Amino acid sequence: MNDNITTTEIVEEGKLKKNMGTLIILIISGAMIYALPYFKAYYYDTFVLHFNLTNTQMGTLGSVYGLFAIPGYIMGGFMADRFSTRKLMTFSLMVTGILALILLFYPPYPVVLLIHAVWGITTIMTFWNALVKAIRTIASSNEQGRAFGLFEGGRGIVNIVQATAMLALFSYLSRIASDKVGLSAIIAGYAAIHILLGVLLWIRFKDPFESKNVKGQSFVNVPVLKKALKMPTTWLVVAIIFTSYTVIISYFYFTPYTTQVFGATATLGAFFSIFSQYMRPIGSFTAGFAADKFGSSKILLICFIILTLSILGITITPGKASLIWIVVICAVSLYTVMYGIQSLHYAILEEGDYSLEMTGTVTSIVCPLGYSAEFFAPLVAGPLLDKFPGVTGYKYFFTYLTAMGVIGIIVTLIWLSITKERRMELAHARKK
Predict the structure, then answer these.
(1) Strands (E), 83-146
(2) Domain spans of the chain, in order of start
(3) Which of its termini does the chain have fewer beta carbons within 10 Å around, N or C?
(4) What whole-number distance in Å separates Cα of residue 36 and Cα of residue 364?
(5) What class, spelled out in words, does domain 7-204 have in CATH?
(6) What CATH number does the domain located at 222-431 have?
(7) Which helix (H) or strand (E) holds 268?
(8) pTM to 2 decimal places
C-alpha cells in the first residue's frame, strides 16, 4: 500500500457492511478481554478460598490491575499509532488467555498478583486504543455512529450472554463435582475463548496501516501530539467523556436510594442495576444509527438533555412508595441514554476532523483524562453519603450528577458551534 494513501481513501475502503464479520469479532473481543480481570468479583468466596487469599489481597489484585491500566491508556494511544493494530490486539488476546491458563495451577499469591499486573497492560495498553482505531478503520466517515453503536450495544449483549453461560456452567459443575472444578472450568473457558479470538482476529482483520514503513519513527509522534493538544475539540471530548462516565459508573447508587427512600424491596432494587445492562444494547444501537442519520453531536446533545432531566426527576420526586413509578421511568430513560452517549464517545471524532492516523494519539489524551471520572466520582459520593446519611446525602450526590449532565450539555453545544463546517461536509456526504 502506498505510504501516502489518504485517510479518506482508507475509510472508504472499510465500508461497515463488508466488514461486519470483523466488527463481530471486535465486539466479542472488546467484551471478553475484560472478563478475566473482573470475573473473580462474581465468584468472590470461591476465588478467595481456592487461591488461599485474604480480603486485602483480593482487593490488591484489583488495585494493581488499575495501577497498570491508568498509564496504559496513555502509552496505548502512542502504541496504536506506532504499531500494527492487528498485531497489538492479537498479542493482547493471546497473552491474556495464556496467563489465564497459569491460574489453573492455582499458583501462590505473588504469581496471581503478577498476572493481574500484566493484564493491566494486555487489556488496556496494547488493546483498548488499538481497538478504537480498528473500529474507526472498518467504517466509512458516515458510518462511525452505527459502528460504535453496534460495538457498545454488542458488548452489552455479549456480557449478558457470557456471564449467564459461565454462571450456568459453574452451577452445574459445582453441583455434580465441586466448586473448584466449576471455577477451573470458567478459567479454562475464558482462556480458550481469548486464544481463539486472537487467532480469528489475526486472520480476519485487515490493517490498512500495517504495511506502512515505520522504521526509525519515534514512539511518540510529537508534531501529531502537539496538534491534538492544540485542538479545542480534544478537550471537549475529554469533558464529554468525563461528565457522562461520571454518571455511567455511579448509576448503581440508585439501587440503595430506591430501597431506603421509596421503600422498594431488595429485589426491585437489584432490578434497577441489572436492568441497566438490558437497556445498553437499545441505547447504543439507537444512538449509533441515529447519529449517522442526523449527526453524532446532535444525538449526543439530545441524550445529555434526557440524561440530565432523568437524574433531576429521580432527585426531586418525593419519597413515597406510590410515586416509585416515576423513578422507574426516569431510571429506564437514564440507562438508555447514558449508554447511547457512551457509544458516541469516539464516533464524534469524525466530526472533530481527526484523521485515522492520529486516532491513537488522541485517545492517549482523552482516555486517561475522561475515564479519570472513575477515580473522582467515588471521592465525591463517599464523603457526601457519610457526612449526610440517608436521603440528604443521595440528593446532594445526585445534584452533583445533574451538574455533570448540565456541563455535558454546555460542552456539546460548544462542540456543535466549532465543528459546524465539518458537520456540514458530513451532512452533505450523507445526502449523496
Answers:
(1) none
(2) 7-204, 222-431
(3) C
(4) 24
(5) mainly alpha
(6) 1.20.1250.20
(7) helix 266-294
(8) 0.87
